[in-house]
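Homework-ish question, so no full write-ups if that breaks the rules, but can someone show me the predicted structure for this set?
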Amino acid sequence: MSGHVVSVKNYVLIFLALLALTALTTGVAFIDLGPYNTMVALAIAGCKMMLVVLFFMHILYSRNLTKIVAAAGLLWLMILLTLTMSDFATRNWTPEPSGWNAGGKSSGAPAPAGAATAPSTPATESH
Amino acid sequence: MAESQAVHAVHAHQFEDLDQQHDVGTLGMWAFLATEIMFFGGLFAGYTVYRYLYLPSFEAGSRLLDIRLGAINTAVLLGSSLTMALAVRAAQTNKRKALATFLVLTMILGGVFLGIKFVEYAHKWEHHLVPGLHWAPDAEEVAQIQGLKPGAAAPQVELFLCFYFFMTGMHALHMIIGFGIMTVMLVLSLRGRFSSEYYSPIEVTGLYWHFVDIIWIFLFPLLYLVGGRY
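A: Not a homework solution, just the prediction itself:
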């Protein structure tokens, strides 16, 4: 039976590296780096993930097909996060056309047509 | 008798040989893990959106968590990944006693992790900080939450704690499922079903356990560290 056997020493070294990275990321949380705190924390988490995937999960010694499937999982997660955030992060980029707010409201979410009159109309139909 | 069965492991009839059977099993597990990435991915995406919208509250919520217990738990879970990797290695090198020992050690470390998690949950319960079930911080506690970070609002901190409980809860559920799988593996290994010729179930169990570890590797910074402690 095949299957690459990693030495005990290497497994322990990987484990120690993972512990060191955990200590590092915890320590950085006590230093104010502004927005970089999150980036550093995620970068360290990414390094830890790669160590676990490559050595503990034997991806380094796996067939290429297995590597592709593993990478595909990560790729689709990135697509999910990127497309979701490309919506939320850009919602305020385009100014609201002023014609939509002819009623006088200068800011806030664009109200659907007829919403302004809704409170004065008795909501008899919605029962 | 069980010994001789294991040494001459026979591959299932649809495979060429044991090697191919092993590769197919591993590949199938990775395909399953890809679906698991998407399962947790939904939670991570939801977290990202609301963290973007309510950053101060999420940082305040993060400061409510015990960073020390979180870091200890990370170390404990990484330790259980090490013992799991050594269990797979023991199977690869035909060391059956070591295989059983490392499986038990992995389960013990996993149990320690869940124990610490339980202490954290209990602490949240005492402080009325469990959304839905037990959310009733008094005026003083609300003022304290809002004082953790300028711009924080109690309802948004409640949302952060929703994510906290759902994400760590789903993670803990996966660990409990892992205990079930490992119990079966332990029984099978004690019956001598695994050898250096045939250890795919141990390898696949290891992949599952390491995956659960990776989820925690990301949950720890996202939940415990993003608020900072400076």
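Now go work out the reasoning yourself. Hint: Chain A is about 55% helix and 0% strand.
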